[in-house]
Design a protein that fits this description.
The complex is a heterodimer of chains A (about 375) and B (about 350).
Chain A (H helix, E strand, L loop, with lengths): L1 E2 L10 H7 L15 H21 L6 E4 L2 H16 L3 E5 L4 H12 L3 E5 L9 H7 L4 E5 L13 H10 L3 E5 L11 H4 L3 E5 L10 E5 L25 H39 L3 E4 L9 E6 L4 H10 L2 E2 L15 H5 L4 H4 L2 E5 L6 H20 L6
Parallel strand pairs in A: 1-11, 3-4, 3-5, 5-6, 6-7
Antiparallel strand pairs in A: 2-8, 7-8, 9-10, 10-12
Chain B lengths: L2 E5 L4 H12 L3 E8 L10 H14 L3 E5 L1 H17 L6 H20 L4 E3 L5 E5 L2 E5 L23 E2 L7 H11 L19 H9 L5 E5 L4 E5 L10 E4 L2 E9 L4 E5 L5 E12 L11 E4 L7 E8 L4 E10 L6 E6 L2 E12 L1
Parallel strand pairs in B: 1-2, 1-4, 2-3, 4-7, 8-12
Antiparallel strand pairs in B: 5-6, 8-9, 10-11, 11-12, 13-16, 13-18, 14-15, 14-17, 15-16, 17-18
The chains are: A alpha/beta (about 375), B alpha/beta (about 350).
Chain lengths: ~375, ~350
C-alpha cells in the first residue's frame, strides 16, 4: 500500500514502540502507588511530561495528558464555559468537528457563539476576530493549521487580540505539533490541544496545555490524577510513547520537512499538468508542507478514493472524521467553493516513509481514473 | 478480474447473497447505505454494524455510503406529499428507483465496481438480447413488483444471487453458517420507527384534520380522522354494516365509502411509465398486470399508450386499485413495464 493519509493517522515509529513496550509488560505498576514498582512508572510519566513541556516552551505543571485531540478540545472549550457559567464563544467555520460540536453543544446550554468566516484561502481575518469580541466573550478557539487544506492561521496575532480583551485563547495544534515550531509563551497560547498518533505515536493519547492561571473546570471527574483536571489511571505506555514520538519529531523535523515538501510540490504540479479542470485548495504559502488538497471538477471524491484504494493508494477526500458522507467538506464550503466542486475533493498527506516512487504511482494512476469517471454519466448522481 | 459490490442491509437475505458470491470466489466488497437518521425499523446504525460484522466474517472490505439526503428527497418527502394529496404511495418502489438502484448503484459503479449484487428475490432474463427483471424461483417472495420502476439501463449491472433459492433455504443456510445478521424481516416503511405512518404524516404536514365521510350518492354519513389515515379498500364500519373506502378527495378532505362491488374497477390509468421493452413489441394477448404487492396477476389489454403513460382494461374487475400504487405489467415471468396508478374506473 502507498500510504498518503498521514493527516488522518501515522504508523507508530519502531523506536516509539520499543520505548512503550516495557510499560505494557513488566513495568505495569500504577503510577499512583507508593511502592517502588509504582514510583518507577511515575518517573517515566513525569519524564515524558517534562519532555513535552520543554518542546512547547511550557512548564511541566501546565501539561495534562488526555485521550487525544478531541478530548483536549472538548475540555478546553467546555471547561472554560462550565467555569464561567454563561457567555459567548468565538471560533471559525473550518474547525475540526471536535471544536465545532463542542461549541454547538454549548449553544444548546444557552451559551452564545460566533462562527467566523474564512477567505478563499481558508484564512481567518484577525480583524474579524477583534470585531466579534463582546464583553461577555469567554474563549476564542482557532486552529493552528487546518486538517483538510493545511492553511496556517495567524494565531499569534489572534491570541494578542484575545488578550487585549482578557479572553482565553485556545488552539487545536493537532496537525502542526511536530511539523511547525510551537512556543506557547511567545505565541500567547492559553490552551493547546495535541495528539500522539499524528506524529508516529500511539492512538488514544493526547495533551492539553493549560497556561498557569487559566480558569477551567475538569470534564472527566475522578481521582486526583493530572492535578484533578483529568481523573483516571494514566495511560502510561501511551504517555511514554508520546514523549518519545515528540522527541523524535523535534530532532527530525527540519530534514523531514525539506524532503516531504519536495515530494508534495512535485505531486501537486504534475497532477495539475495532467488533469484538466483541477483546483488546488488552501493558501499557497501559509500552508502545511505535508499535504495537498485538490478539487477535480465533474468527479466525486468518493469515486476517486475507492478507485485509488483498489490501485493500492490510500488517500482521503478530506477528513477521516467525516468519511462515508457525501456531504461536501464544511471547510471547502466555508472557503466559498460551490458544493458540486467541493464534492470532487481529494487530500494527499505525506509522511516520513513516502518515496519518489509513491508519487510516481499516484501521477500514473489518478489521471486515467479521472478520465474514466468523467466518461461515466449514465447513472443518476 | 471483475469487481462485484454487494449491497448489504445487515439482514438475512443480503448477508447470504454476500456469502454465496464470496464462496464462488468473486472479488467482492460489501456496501451499506446509511439512509435514515434517528429511529427506524431497519437501515439504522445497528444494521450497518451487523453488515460490517458479516463482512469481517467473510473477510471482505466493507464501505458505508451516506444516502440520507437522497432518501429524504426522493422517498420520505414524496411519501408525505403523495399521502397528503390523497394517494397511497409506494415508497419502496421509489427508493429502489431513485436511491438503491439509482444513486447508490451509480456511486458504486463510479467507484470502480463492474457489477452490483443485491439480496432481492428476483432474476434477470433476456428478451432479444435485452435484460429484463423476472420472477425468482421463490415466487411467493418475489420482489420484482417493487423493482418495476428501476431504470432499464441499470439492469445490465445487476446480479441477484438468491434467484434460485427459497426463503426457507436462505434462512436455514444463514443459521447454519452462524452469520451475525438481524433477525426478522425488513419492514415496509422502514423509516417509520413506530410503524404508525399516520404519526409521521401528522408530524410532517399537520394532517388534514377531521372531515366528512360521504357515500357514493354524495350524502354525508359521518366524519373521519383525516383523509391521510385511510387507504383505498380499507374496511369502514358504519351502523353495524361493512363498507369500504373507495375514494379519497384530498381537496375537499372527504372520503367516499361504498359497498364492495362499488370498489371493483376494470380500467386503470398509470403515469411515469417505465418501459423495459419497446411499446410496440408488447404482445397484447399475453399481458398480465398487478396493481398491488401480492395481488394475483390479472389478464389485461392496453387501451391506449404513449411513452409517458398508459391505460389498461382488465379481464376481470379488480378490488380497490389505489392511486399512487404501482401498476406492473408482465409477459410470462418477466416485467415489461411499471408505472404509477393515477386513476381507476369501473
Amino acid at each position: 500500500m502507498i500510504y498518503l493519509d498521514h493527516s488522518a493517522t501515522t504508523p507508530v515509529d519502531p523506536r516509539v514502540f520499543e520505548a512503550m513496550k516495557p510499560f505494557l509488560t513488566e513495568q505495569f505498576g500504577n503510577p499512583s502507588s507508593v511502592y517502588r514498582a509504582g514510583q518507577d512508572v511515575r518517573r517515566a510519566v513525569e519524564d515524558a511530561r517534562e519532555k513535552i513541556a520543554g518542546l512547547l516552551g511550557a512548564k511541566p505543571r501546565e501539561i495534562i495528558f488526555t485521550s487525544g485531540g478531541t478530548e483536549s478540545d472538548n475540555t478546553s472549550i467546555k471547561g472554560v464555559a462550565l467555569n464561567r457559567g454563561k457567555g459567548h464563544v468565538i471560533t471559525s467555520r473550518i474547525e475540526h468537528p471536535a471544536v465545532l460540536k463542542a461549541v454547538g453543544w454549548l449553544e444548546k446550554q444557552d451559551f452564545e457563539a460566533t462562527y467566523l468566516p474564512v477567505d478563499s484561502d481558508g484564512l481567518v481575518d484577525p480583524d474579524k476576530v477583534r470585531k466579534s469580541i463582546r464583553d461577555d466573550t469567554i474563549i476564542i478557539s482557532i486552529m493552528h493549521a487546518n486538517n483538510e487544506v493545511g492553511t496556517i492561521q495567524p494565531i499569534e496575532e489572534i491570541a494578542a487580540i484575545a488578550h487585549e480583551r482578557g479572553v482565553v485563547f485556545h488552539t487545536d495544534a493537532v496537525q502542526t505539533f511536530g511539523k511547525l515550531p510551537i512556543d506557547v509563551e511567545k505565541m500567547g497560547i492559553d490552551l493547546l490541544s495535541l495528539s500522539a498518533h499524528k506524529i508516529y505515536g500511539p492512538k488514544g493519547m493526547g495533551v492539553l496545555y493549560i497556561r498557569k492561571g487559566t480558569k477551567l473546570d475538569p470534564c472527566v471527574h475522578g481521582g486526583h490524577q493530572e492535578w484533578s483536571m483529568r481523573g483516571g489511571t494514566e495511560n502510561v505506555a501511551g504517555i511514554v510513547g508520546l514523549g518519545k514520538a515528540a522527541e523524535i519529531a523535534m530532532t527530525e523535523m527540519a530534514p523531514d520537512e525539506k524532503r516531504i515538501r519536495g515530494l508534495r510540490d512535485r505531486l501537486e504540479s504534475e497532477l495539475a499538468g495532467k488533469i484538466t479542470d483541477m483546483l488546488l485548495n488552501g493558501h499557497r504559502e501559509k500552508r502545511l508542507y505535508s499535504l495537498t488538497n485538490i478539487c477535480v471538477k465533474f468527479v466525486e471524491g468518493e469515486a476517486m478514493l475507492l478507485r485509488l484504494d483498489y490501485e493500492g493508494v490510500a488517500a482521503s477526500s478530506g477528513s477521516a472524521c467525516t468519511s462515508g458522507s457525501l456531504e461536501p467538506s464544511h471547510v471547502l464550503l466555508a472557503m466559498g467553493l460551490p458544493a458540486e466542486i467541493a464534492h470532487g475533493s481529494l487530500r494527499f498527506s505525506l509522511g516520513k516513509a513516502n518515496t519518489e516512487q509513491d508519487i510516481d504511482k499516484v501521477i500514473e494512476v489518478l489521471p486515467p481514473i479521472v478520465e474514466k469517471l468523467r466518461a461515466m454519466s449514465a447513472f443518476p448522481r | 478480474m471483475a469487481r462485484t459490490a454487494v449491497l448489504m442491509s445487515g439482514g438475512v437475505d443480503s448477508s447470504l447473497a454476500a456469502w454465496l458470491l464470496k464462496d464462488a470466489g468473486e472479488d467482492l466488497t460489501g456496501i451499506t447505505a446509511k439512509m435514515w437518521e434517528g429511529g427506524s425499523r431497519c437501515c439504522d446504525l445497528d444494521d450497518i454494524y451487523r453488515a460490517e460484522r458479516v463482512c469481517h466474517r467473510l473477510g471482505i472490505p466493507h464501505v458505508v455510503l451516506d444516502l440520507t439526503s437522497s432518501f429524504e428527497r426522493y422517498v420520505v418527502k414524496p411519501f408525505v406529499e403523495s399521502y397528503m394529496c390523497g394517494q397511497t404511495p409506494n415508497p419502496c418502489a421509489e427508493c429502489n428507483r431513485e436511491v438503491k438502484m439509482g444513486r447508490l448503484v451509480g456511486r458504486v459503479l463510479r467507484a470502480g465496481f463492474d457489477r452490483v449484487a443485491t439480496g432481492h428475490y428476483a432474476s434477470i432474463g433476456f428478451r432479444e438480447g435485452r435484460p429484463l427483471l423476472c420472477e425468482p424461483r421463490d415466487r411467493e417472495k418475489s420482489q420484482i413488483y417493487f423493482l418495476s420502476l428501476v431504470r432499464p439501463e441499470i439492469l445490465d449491472s445487476l446480479e441477484f444471487p438468491l434467484k434460485g433459492l427459497s426463503k426457507s433455504e436462505v434462512s436455514a443456510r444463514v443459521k447454519d453458517l452462524g452469520l451475525p445478521v438481524r433477525q426478522g424481516e425488513s419492514q415496509d416503511l422502514c423509516f417509520v420507527a413506530s410503524g404508525r405512518y399516520d404519526e409521521l404524516l401528522e408530524a410532517r404536514s399537520g394532517g388534514s384534520g377531521p372531515g366528512e365521510v360521504i357515500d357514493t350518492g354524495g350524502h354525508a354519513v359521518g366524519t373521519h380522522r383525516g383523509h391521510q389515515v385511510y387507504t383505498i379498500g380499507q374496511r369502514f364500519g358504519l351502523k353495524g354494516k361493512r363498507y369500504y373506502v373507495i375514494e379519497k378527495r384530498a381537496e375537499e378532505n372527504q372520503i367516499v365509502i361504498g359497498e364492495r362491488h362499488e370498489a371493483m374497477m376494470s380500467t386503470m390509468g398509470a403515469s411515469r411509465l417505465n418501459l423495459f421493452v419497446p411499446l410496440d413489441s408488447i404482445d397484447g394477448s399475453r399481458l398480465k398486470i398487478r396493481y398491488r404487492y401480492n395481488s394475483p396477476a390479472v389478464d389485461a389489454s392496453i387501451l391506449e399508450a404513449s411513452p409517458e403513460c398508459l391505460r389498461v382494461s382488465t379481464a376481470e374487475p379488480c378490488f380497490a386499485p389505489a392511486p399512487g400504487q404501482i401498476l406492473a405489467g408482465y409477459e410470462g415471468n418477466c416485467l415489461i413495464f411499471g408505472g404509477i396508478i393515477e386513476t381507476a374506473a369501473e
